[in-house]
Each structure stands twice: as structure tokens, then as C-alpha cells.
Amino acid sequence: MRILLTGASGLIGSAVYASRKTHDFIRLGRDLSKADYLCDLSNLENCQNFPANDALVHCAGVVDEDFADGAVSNLTKILAGAEGLAQRAKEAGAKIAIYISSSHVYGKQEGTIDESRPPNPLSYYAIAHFCTEQIFRKVFSGEDCQVVVLRPNAVYGALPDLRHFRRWSLIPFSFPLEAYRHGQITLRSSGEQRRNFVSSRSIAETICRILDAPFKMPAIINVLGNTTESVYQYAERSADSLFRVSGGHSAVVRPSVDSPTKKPSPFCYASQFSQVQETISPDEHLDQLMLQFSQNSDWLMGRP
């Protein structure tokens, strides 16, 4: 199959591109040194005609940083880009569309959440993800088409280009970065809220499974990792990694632990569908990241 792929230089898209085996992935992007075809989702006039293809995998949809300034105007741009991308891919032959969304589409991250939980997006970030899902369903609504939406919770994984990564606010990256740069991870809460941590590699393998399936896959799949733990536990895990890799020490500082009546609600991220086997653990990810930090120490310590 010939697969159009967005976000090939990002966290998830790079793992998808690295996993290519039986398929021909065609990278779409704004930088032709990292893409095969020019495609600027913020300005569709700066897009080359898409080549003939069988499927679209969209890994460059929405990030928290798109709404860092609180501008709802960004929502219109994101959705226009998603619709233009989907339409052009379909016109060039795509019958399958896979979109990397987020667990935040479900709303509050509490209780047991599987694919039967109704969507309730409560932030511009989550709303943008859900609206993009719906746009894909609208464009690929034919009987001979299928849309599969993947909703991971907290994603970790290898960074192909440390210096151009812009999602440092994500826990799997912000905590080890704080530990390395400052010798201290500072939590804004007690950190008792729980998250499911899944690797970008597992997401990539799930995508390959969908593309290889001889039958239609579920419309929504929660992609799960093997590790569900509290934010505080992940901070401690990051500090432990710093010590393992470099012998450095990092404290984990947090406000007083909430009283029993204010503890976060239990959280269990679940799926009704079989999952791929995780092949890289959070500890392995953190150790690899710490090594990258040490190899780029001068640049890293000088960044804002």
C-alpha cells in the first residue's frame, strides 16, 4: 500500500515512518528536506498535488501548544487544514484514514474510560481533536472507506530531532528535562492523578496492524501501554533515570498531599480491543532521553 503520512518528523509520526515494512510511506510536510511532498496545513495553497495513494495516516493534527495563547481562532485554521488534507488524500485515492487523537476527547481523565465512553471535550485542544475526527468521518463517509481514530493517553518515545521538538510540556519529556537541567522536578499539584503511559512505537505498530488487516477495524481504539501510574510516580521515575545514566540527583517537590476528601478520582484507561505488545518501557525511554540530553548538554542548558 502507498500511505500518505503527516508528522513524519514528530514524536508519533517518526515512529510510524521507522516501522515501515510492507508499505510505502509518502511523507507530507512543510520542509522538503524531511518530506517527500510539500504540504502546509496552515496554508493549503502551499501544497503540491498528492500522489496516488491507498491510505492517509495523520500524525500532525493538534498539539497543546496550538492554544498556548488561548486563541480560539487557531481552531478554525486547524480544522480547515484537516479538511483540506482529507479531501485531497481521498481525491488521490485514499480509502483508509487513520487519525491520532487523544484521550482528552473523553473529557475528565477519571473513572474507567474505554471506547464506549461518550466524548465530552472540555478544552480547545480536546475540541480540536474531536472536530478533526468528525471531519475525517465526513470526508471518508463512503461505504468503501473507513476511518480509524486512535486515542492514546500519555505518549513517550524517541525524539528524532531533539532541537526541533516543541512539546516539552508533555509529562514524559518535561519531567526528565527538569531533572536534567535543574536537579529538581516541581509539581503544581500533589501528583496523585494517574495516567496511562504508551510508547510511540506501540502506536506505530497499531497503525501497521490496521493497514495490514483484511477487514475493517474498529472506528475508535484506545491505544494502551503497560504502565499506569501517578504523575508523582513518573516524576520519581525520571529522577531515578537521571541517577542511573549520569549519577546526578534530582528532587521531586510537590505541594502537600491532598486530604482524603480531595484525592483525584480513580482512573483506568481501558480498551475493548486487543493491544500490541509494548516493546519499550518508560524506564528505557527515560534512559535514552537522558543520554540524548547529555549529548546535547550545551544547547539544552542554554535554551529558555
UniProtKB/TrEMBL annotation:
Per UniProt, residues of the NAD-dependent epimerase/dehydratase domain are 3-223
> Under which pathway is this protein filed?
Bacterial outer membrane biogenesis; LPS O-antigen biosynthesis
**InterPro entries recorded:** Epimerase_deHydtase, NAD(P)-bd_dom_sf
Annotated membrane-spanning segments are none
The protein's superkingdom reads Bacteria
Q: Which family does it belong to?
A: Belongs to the NAD(P)-dependent epimerase/dehydratase family.
Q: What is this protein called?
A: NAD-dependent epimerase/dehydratase family protein
- This protein's species is Paraburkholderia azotifigens
